[in-house]
């Protein structure tokens, strides 16, 4: 088994001006690719171990968790964005679901933005549904820490510096606020139905 980098669902410059072509190119070609390569390298080491080589299983598992989650989170991230859309909003039915979980759409948006802005160091903010279909917001540090193993990720924002630094310098808040214009709510709705 091998992990692969799927093609981006749009051109490198599709997310501009919220996220520049330069960032998307580096982020996808270099950073995302590195997680795919890291995951495959860890799998190869496990394979060697099964054939009798002496390997550090604990260290490999740690690498595998970091890189596989890095890979999967980036796939989710690319797919839950699209080109800037004026008045970008979820459908009425998704909005109702959000309102019933968070009280109001604004409360949801504030909580998600706050989660994104306050991740310690590098990580993610995610909207997810649990096994009972409840919507919740969470943070991931790195790609894999603080996660709950029952979640189905509906929406993810990457708040590693590599996701915004070239455009926004250290202003993660401005990146997060602008990012809402890119959310592909159709994809969020599809994920919720799965
Ligand atoms: Fe990233």
Task: Describe the protein in words.
The protein has 194 residues and is mainly alpha-helical. It folds into 2 domains: 59 residues, Helix Hairpins; 102 residues, minor pseudopilin epsh fold, CATH 3.55.40. Helix content is 51%, strand content 11%. The protein is built from 7 helices and 3 strands, in the order H-H-H-H-E-E-E-H-H-H. It has a 3-stranded antiparallel β-sheet, with helices on both faces. Helix 1 packs antiparallel against helix 2. The radius of gyration is 17 Å and the shape is globular. The mean pLDDT is 95. Bound molecules: fe (ii) ion.
Care to give the gist of this entry?
With 194 residues, the protein is mainly alpha-helical. It is built from 7 helices and 3 strands, in the order ααααβββααα.
Which short descriptors sum up this protein?
194 residues; globular; minor pseudopilin epsh fold; Helix Hairpins; 2 domains; 7 helices; 3 strands; mainly alpha; 51% helix; binds fe (ii) ion
What layout of secondary structure does this protein have?
Elements: H1 21-50, H2 57-79, H3 92-102, H4 105-118, E1 123-129, E2 135-141, E3 152-158, H5 165-168, H6 172-179, H7 185-193
Antiparallel strand pairs: 1-2, 1-3
Bound molecules: fe (ii) ion.
Residues 27, 31, 74, 158, 160, 162-163 line the site of fe (ii) ion (FE2).
Mean pLDDT: 95
CATH-assigned fold name of the largest domain:
minor pseudopilin epsh fold
| Low-confidence parts | none
Count of domains: 2
Main sheet: which strands, in order across?
2-1-3
The kinds of small molecule bound in this structure are: fe (ii) ion
The radius of gyration is: 17 Å
Per CATH, which architecture of the largest domain? 3-Layer(bab) Sandwich
What's the CATH class of the largest domain, please? Alpha Beta
Extended strand count: 3
Order of helices and strands: HHHHEEEHHH
């Amino acid at each position: 088994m091998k992990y692969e980098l799927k093609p981006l669902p749009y051109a490198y410059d599709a997310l501009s001006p919220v996220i520049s072509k330069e960032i998307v190119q580096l982020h996808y070609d270099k950073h995302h690719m590195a997680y795919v390569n890291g995951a495959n390298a860890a799998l190869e080491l496990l394979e060697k171990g099964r054939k009798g080589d002496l390997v550090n299983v604990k260290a490999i598992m740690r690498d595998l968790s970091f890189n596989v989650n890095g890979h999967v989170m980036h796939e989710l991230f690319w797919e839950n964005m699209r080109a800037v859309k004026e008045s970008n909003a979820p459908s009425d039915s998704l909005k109702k679901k959000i309102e019933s979980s968070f009280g109001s759409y604004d409360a949801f948006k504030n909580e998600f933005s706050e989660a994104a802005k306050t991740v310690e160091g590098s990580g993610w903010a995610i909207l997810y549904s649990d096994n009972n279909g409840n919507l919740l917001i969470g943070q991931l540090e790195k790609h894999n820490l603080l996660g709950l193993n029952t979640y189905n990720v509906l929406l993810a924002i990457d708040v590693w510096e590599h996701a915004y630094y070239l455009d926004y310098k250290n202003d993660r808040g401005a990146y997060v606020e602008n990012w809402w214009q890119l959310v592909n709510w159709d994809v969020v709705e599809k994920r919720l139905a799965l």
